[in-house]
Amino acid sequence: MLPAAARLTRGQDFALVVRRGRRAGRARLVLHAMRGDAVAPERERRAEGHGAEQTSPTRAGLGPARVGFVVSKAVGGSVVRHGVLRRLRHVVRDRLPVLPADLELVVRALPPAAEATSAELAADLDAALRRLRLLPEDSPRDPAAGVA
């Protein structure tokens, strides 16, 4: 389970990251990422007409990166989707400490993720993070193990 501070939960935030963020696709997943400096002005603009209780504060320098997951029915039935979601959460949780604190990330699983192992999902996630320049090139393949 991800810590509450690391979860992207609002539909508006998902839509903003997917619409305005940078994207990197791999065989089993697609990442949409947006840094906090781009997120804050959009939130402030939305807040002007809606009241402060509907917006979240600017995230620059606060807590871990926030991550949301999209696993559609195209991936499989309920049991398969939840299995993919659990594996993705576990893989992302291990990488939270090395991600920028002002990052908002949406991880969208593709149908091949249904048969993928955690190691395969981790490899795709790392490759996509490196492509977006969010993970250093020399970082370990599995941050939990500390093995290069």
UniProtKB/TrEMBL annotation:
Pfam families: Ribonuclease_P. InterPro entries: Ribosomal_Su5_D2-typ_SF, Ribsml_uS5_D2-typ_fold_subgr, RNase_P. Signal peptide: none annotated. Keywords: Endonuclease, Hydrolase, Nuclease, RNA-binding, tRNA processing. Its EC number is 3.1.26.5. The keyword Nuclease applies. Residues 40-51 have a biased composition (Basic and acidic residues). The keyword RNA-binding applies. It catalyses: Endonucleolytic cleavage of RNA, removing 5'-extranucleotides from tRNA precursor. Residues 40-63 are annotated as: Disordered. Gene3D superfamilies: 3.30.230.10. Consists of a catalytic RNA component (M1 or rnpB) and a protein subunit. Belongs to the RnpA family. RNaseP catalyzes the removal of the 5'-leader sequence from pre-tRNA to produce the mature 5'-terminus. It can also cleave other RNA substrates such as 4.5S RNA. The protein component plays an auxiliary but essential role in vivo by binding to the 5'-leader sequence and broadening the substrate specificity of the ribozyme. PANTHER family: RIBONUCLEASE P PROTEIN COMPONENT. This is Ribonuclease P protein component. The lineage of its organism: Bacteria, Bacillati, Actinomycetota, Actinomycetes, Pseudonocardiales. The gene is rnpA.
